[in-house]
Amino acid sequence: MAYIYKKGKKWAFRAYMGTDPITGKEIKKSKSGFLTQKDAKLAAALFERQFNDGEYIQPSKFIFDDLCKDWEKHYSQDAKESSLRARKIALKHIINEFGKTPVQKINKKAYQDVIDKLSNKFSTNYISSIHSSTNMVFEYAQSLNLIKETPTKGIKLPKKKKTVSDLENDNSINQKFLEKEELEEFLSVAKNEGLEGDLLAFTMLAYTGLRIGEMVALKWSDIDYEKQTLRVIKTYYNPTNNKLNYTLLTPKTEGSIRTITIDPLLIDLLRLHEQEQEVVKRENKPFYKDNDFIFATNEGYPKTIKHLSIRMQRLLKKTSIKKAVTPHSFRHTHTSLLIEANVHIKEIQERLGHSDINTTMDIYAHMTKNIKKEASNKFSNLMKDLSKNLID
């Protein structure tokens, strides 16, 4: 039972909170400044109810910046280096706003205002990344009983509205992948004017749908010529693009660990590349570091993603393709061609290594012109008799 007493002209309460396990002394909660005895009693009753129900949060001056540092140590125990780096980059924007603010003083309104402010500077996807990272930090604070509720809960993430003009000029869907004819043109240029390894690299991306990090990490031990399969069990990580400072990580998700069947064309290109690589190894034997990488430099190190991106841009300039595509566009290209070939969406999910079928469904929307035309033709055939009657 709390003790209610008068302190000067105002009222106060003192309540028992147990015993300190280290010192053995009683822990008490005191609060003063109440205008009436009744106010003090109500406040004391509220405190005791919260304390007994485990809902009471001890006041703390722990600031947001320190919370993020503490969370990073905790998160890094299980997270990949690449994931931690992405989270830290996203959190910088919130730290800039709340870095020195005590965690308990960051409320929902203040956080919503910051999200609204950042939405004017960054894309919807990036805002979502910032929010999800911040939410993880506040949930960590909640698990430590630093806060009762997370200020990130129930926040509305702004969505940028498109105007009619935006929709008329929006070619983003078509820009995400190459049409079959465009892919044929690009690979023909890679064959005739590409540099060492270009044809294999970009054919591999287009014919398998691998993430570029998965492809760069491939080793010869991942290829089974007899079964014509390719195994994905690692991914390449190198944020500095220094060929010596790379790391091999486990794939993005559990679903990303997979073995897929590959086209006979790729088998032929791989055999040819293996023979050419053996020549390079012999010629550069004194300084060749052989770690079994398929896409290796003349010194044996895996090629960087930046290196392959530069090679891709070089080839694009020699084509009639005007799209702002990237190496990841080949993954979308592979998906769209699988859809055009009427491959079941579950098979597409497994081949691409998506643990969540919703991810596959999102890409499923990126239809090729041929599919759209086919849909139109099917509708025309279905309505042929009715259409004929309308004209006659």
Description:
With 392 residues, this protein is mainly α. The chain has three domains: 3-52, no CATH class; 80-143, Tyrosine recombinase, N-terminal domain (DNA polymerase, domain 1); 176-373, Intergrase catalytic core (hpI Integrase, Chain A, Orthogonal Bundle), CATH 1.10.443.10. It has 17 helices and eight strands. The chain has helices at residues 37-52, 64-75, 81-98, 108-119, 124-143, 164-169, 172-175, 180-193, 198-208, 212-216, 264-283, 305-316, 329-340, 345-352, 357-364, 369-382, 384-391; strands at residues 3-7, 10-19, 26-34, 223-224, 229-232, 235-237, 247-249, 258-261.
Number of self-contained structural domains = 3
CATH-assigned fold name of the largest domain = hpI Integrase, Chain A
The counted number of beta strands is 8
> What's the CATH H-level homologous superfamily of the largest domain?
Intergrase catalytic core
Backbone CA Rg: 30 Å
- Name the poorly predicted regions: none
Number of helices: 17
Q: What is the spatial order of strands in the main beta sheet?
A: 1-2-3
SSE-based structural type: mainly alpha
Domain Core-binding (CB): 62-142
Pfam family, one: Phage_integrase
InterPro entries: AP2-like_int_N, CB, DNA_brk_join_enz, Integrase-like_cat_sf, Integrase_catalytic, Integrase_recombinase_N, Integrase_SAM-like_N, Tyrosine_recombinase_XerCD
GO molecular function, one term: DNA binding
